[in-house]
Design goal:
single chain, alpha+beta, globular
Length: 146
């Protein structure tokens, strides 16, 4: 099996369409795998949120939101976004999460596939909100020390 080289770097403005298309493909696939693909409105809202975060990155020069892209050849194969905690995190944790230092970070997900991976890697989440998205579908938050 040939090993593919991946480079991580800041995105370029001319890549906005390619990044947005990558995010759309990943989210549609995730919704399908999570068996929530009937939630079209939620998917559209999440896509709009991702687009707004990306726009914020370019408008603020990375001050409000910071993006990185993983590139293989001419293809975007991954994205990472760092920024202020979302309204959802503020609401769920009742403001208990404060600005974190570089020594720790916060991860959150309602996707069961991500939760399984993060539980193996980071242990139990700090916060679990049972049945948040639907019956049997929780939202979980980890605080990870580096």
């Amino acid at each position: 099996m040939k090993r593919t080289e991946v480079t991580v770097r800041r995105p370029k403005k001319e890549e906005i369409f390619q990044i947005e298309e990558f995010m759309r493909v990943v989210l549609v696939d995730t919704y399908r795998k999570e068996q929530i693909d009937e939630k079209i409105y939620d998917l559209q809202e999440e896509l709009a949120s991702k687009r707004a975060y990306l726009a914020s990155y370019f408008e603020s020069g990375g001050e409000d939101r910071y993006f990185l892209v993983a590139v293989s050849g001419n293809n975007i194969v991954g994205t990472m976004e760092f920024g202020k905690q979302s309204a959802l995190l503020k609401e769920l944790t009742k403001g208990e999460l404060r600005r974190r230092s570089i020594r720790e970070f916060c991860l959150d997900s309602g996707y069961q596939s991500a939760q399984r991976i993060w539980k193996k890697k980071f242990g139990s989440p700090r916060y679990t909100f049972e049945n948040y998205w639907a019956e049997g579908v929780s939202h979980e938050i980890w605080i990870v020390k580096i």
